[in-house]
Amino acid sequence: MRPASEALIVIDVQNDFCPGGALAVGGGDEIIAEINALMDQFETVVLTQDWHPAGHTSFAANHPGAAPFSLTEMPYGPQVLWPVHCVQGTGGAAFHPALRTDPAQMILRKGFRAAIDSYSAFFENDRTTPTGLEGYLRTRGVTAVTLVGLATDYCVAYSAADAARLGLAATILESACRAIDLNGSLAEARSATVSAGVVWG
Q1: Which residues are tagged catalytic?
Q2: Residue 144, strand partner residues
Q3: Across all residues in the chain, what is the average pLDDT?
Q4: With contact defined as beta carbons under 8 Å apart, do 121 and 131 qualify?
Q5: CA distances in angstroms from 111 to 53, 98, 114, 124, listed in the order given
Q6: Whole-prediction pTM value?
């Protein structure tokens, strides 16, 4: 068992990010057994869940003529326009059925504000609107986090970098993650997170 000061954060292991889903990450379901086993090592387990309204501005379908994976400019900066995914209440937004959810003490939903995307488990993409996760972890006495899940180069990396910036010791356990790797995004994410103080394990 890990010390009580360490938490496991499981990022977005949802049907739409697994094979057959609307925004499938290659091999996304291959990490579930390892994640399930890891949960028994931590006193604090948090699951995050992408939870978008159908009219979300990050969906290419809501920008006439825009192609999925193209870039647009939002008030908070550049934004990838994604295929419609993880719409609130749909099967695609549900956790993968093989993922254990009972060990989690907290399920954090993110991306529910229609006008702003949310990769990080700690902040919306404006980098200032908090999700409340930091406060939860601090009141639980957590000082270190291990991050696993989907996708390595987006929600996992953004969450890890924010954790480090908030003064938490952050580790990405790469064997329990899978990446989209869009135009070199994995290498970029690795560089950015290492610069922020994140350890890759």
Answers
A1: 12, 110, 155
A2: 6, 169
A3: 97
A4: yes
A5: 8, 23, 7, 7
A6: 0.97
